[in-house]
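Late entry, evening session. Most of the bench is empty. Finally got around to the prediction I had been postponing all week. Sequence below, unchanged from the version circulated by S.P.
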Amino acid sequence: MRREAIIARLRASESEERRVRRGTEVRRRGDHDLNSDDMRHPGPLTPAAVLVPLVDRARGMTVLLTERTAHLNDHAGQVSFPGGRIEPADASPEAAALRETFEEIGLPPERVEPVGRLDDYETRTGFLVHPIVGIVTPPFSLKPDTHEVAEIFEVALATVLDPRNFRRESRVFKGRERLFYVLEHEKHYIWGATASMLVNLSQVLAG
């Protein structure tokens, strides 16, 4: 899928979202989507932003992801997008996503063109995440923060756009079965919020 088509689909999706917002509550995705509302955090939610990096490779677009280190207190060993809390000094969620991405993996902000947003995402751990889609233009070099990032890898966008590559799995949480999306890629098991945001990306780009 080419850069121009991605931008057009994102803009069309955001225009539709603005129409839906008029006079109604803003729709938020979250861990509650496949489950009951008791998976929602009671609030207040901490604002956060992640970058959904689409790398414009000659062989085709890819999605850049990170695997967190195993010793972290939160989401250890899980696959995620680069990002984190929105700080008071950040001018926007886009600014926060670019700052956090540079701090985590060393991707220079000047190599990233923010082109749109996916749906906001509530986590049961108390964050309101703004996913910022950015097109990354090679060449670039990365320098991961080894305290937080164990690995950086890319998945072909074509893989993400094929709904047959996603499945639903479940685990018992607080005595109840909970559902979540899963995407497996080579040795990586992508699930939870990250997989849900990839489903959202796939739906938006499918039009």
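Two things to note before I forget:
The longest strand covers residues 46-57.
The helical segments are 3-21, 93-105, 157-161, 192-206.
Will write this up properly tomorrow.
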